[in-house]
Protein 1
Amino acid sequence: MIDQIDIDSEWFKELSEYPLVIAGPCSAESENQLVETAKYLAKNFKVNVFRAGLWKPRTRPGSFEGVGEIGLAWLKKVKQETGLKIITELARADHLDMILEAGVDMIWIGARTVANPFAIEEIASRLKEVDIPVFVKNPLHPDPSLWLGALERINKAGIRRLAAIHRGFYPFEKSDLRHIPKWEIPIDLMIKCPGLPMICDPSHIAGNRELIPAIAQRAMDLHMDGLMVEVHPDPVNALSDAKQQLDFKDFDHFMKNLEFRTDSFKAGEIINLLGQYRSQIDSVDAQILELLAQRMEVIDKIGGYKREHQVAILQLERWTEILRTRGSLAGELGLDDVFIQKLLDLIHQESIRIQSYPQSLRK
Ligand code: PEP
Ligand code: MN
């Protein structure tokens, strides 16, 4: 099935030196803001493509939903005055004509749209009539097939200049990041579709300026093919994603400090499969530990509650129930029964230790 993704392997190499850098504000807000940002970014020789969202699909009503069509003229001006290539989000199939008419060079499909196969199908059927490079973001929830499915649908529409954007996944776990990277998912896609360029969007993963450099560096270390970074002249007053946009100075600093692994990079190839698998394991292990920490936090709370209400720490029926339900889930997941019993025992012992003493007495 995956073999059927048919990618033009040359277009991406021709687009830029390694890595591809897409930068620009989350949203177009005014002509001035766009032109000022683009002129600044054009001076940074590493920036190849200018981004700005015109129609912003938002999770909650009442947030800034974008300037819409009027922003296309501003993007056109950016292109004329800076020579940068332009990318914007295609949120609805019926926006495609005006986007093309304005001379936009490429489009991205946003995380919320990718989650809806009907919307993707509609977009794909419009794309049959045109040829434009398409960047497909991962959906908000960590479902690799939804991401792959969107890529396949668009590819079937005849789009061969295709790339993926890793922008992280909605975190149900506690996290300092706005979206958890789950690096194993983009790596899996890189392994399955070796010709497919993978771009990292550290801005939407981080959700705050400070964490962007570390995420971007990780993406470069994993040999991802490029970055999409949000840059705004006055981020604090940005109309969308104010916490995660870099100002000009921070962007320059960030780019200067980023280490590009040009030595071992070969466009479109997985350099070191063993390394990619190890990176997947690193990412999954980090998530296991984060989840364990989260479990122990709840355990601490239940310990306090039990002390307050003088409830015994160990309730045998509850423990038997845990063993039964986890055992059967583990079976469904193909995990070894004996291993899981041992693991649950260990977790249980630690949970009892935590509940036995308030945090101040614990060592
Ligand atoms: C964006 O790039 O500004 C955006 C809205 O992205 P996503 O679809 O990844 O949330
Ligand atoms: Mn944004």
Protein 2
Amino acid sequence: MISIDLHSHTTASDGTLDPVELYDRAQERNVHTLAITDHDTVAAHYFLRDHTPEGNIRLITGIELSTTWSGAEIHIVGLNFSLDHQDLNMVVKAQGESRRKRSHHIAERLARRLPDWNADQIFQKVLEGAVEQQQNSSHGFILKPDEVQIGRPHFARWLISEDRCNDMDAAFRKYLDNSKIGNLKAFWPRMSQGVSWIRALGGTAVLAHPGKYRMTATKLRALIKDFKLAGGHAMEVQGSNHPHSQVEQMARYCREFNLMASQGSDFHNPNYPWVDVGRLPPSLPENLKPVWDTWK
Ligand code: AMP
Ligand code: MN
Ligand code: MN
Ligand code: MN
């Protein structure tokens, strides 16, 4: 069976495998086309370019941009752009700065609830945790502290290590969801901006996991329409664990708005077996145009 996975994460953002480990896992699981789409960074791709792993996977460049639309945080996956594009660094730098400011804001909000800690201490601890995770890499994938893209999962891991909660889910529920941590959306560019950046890089702009935004059908339709009119190319129709009814609904939107279809597991961590690299239905619903057909 041929398997195509166009959404996955490494330790360059909030994944737990380094780029070579992810590649090897994908190889073992018969993935033949893999896009690594870390949050707001392409560091894994630069690394793999210099440390080509053994195998025959077709690697697609990718990034998952955090953006906002109508009060919601929307993720735009950019695929198949050139790592040598002269404007790529501008995009990554802008998103990195936003993410860094946002992380300081999260640290400040957490410090109000944890009297033993101040914001700078929390930020340092969380960053150290992310760097430590990279130092476990058996393949030498170690970024400088200012290159690691810190997000809420890194805060969650620190809260767990401090015995403030038992698992990621509890950390998000108790400390990190949007109602607890303030307006995290304010830090990100608009969705239309994210789409134009991907287009400017010559990439394919994909609306990530549209089923995850917890919107009414009316609002989701409005989102997809705005995405299309902003110049978006495709949307993710299926992932690792999506209910059949949702896949069919996304397929209908794809046809209605003449968007291409993408698919990806959104793999982060081998400890969650129901979301694994390459764990996808064997084919797309009928009458859809797969994004990968345009890359031949
Ligand atoms: P951030 O990039 O800081 O907005 O963090 C969002 C990331 O947190 C997502 O990409 C997921 O990987 C992860 N995430 C979101 N909600 C949860 C949750 N309830 N439990 C565990 N991880 C989560
Ligand atoms: Mn993530
Ligand atoms: Mn996402
Ligand atoms: Mn993702």
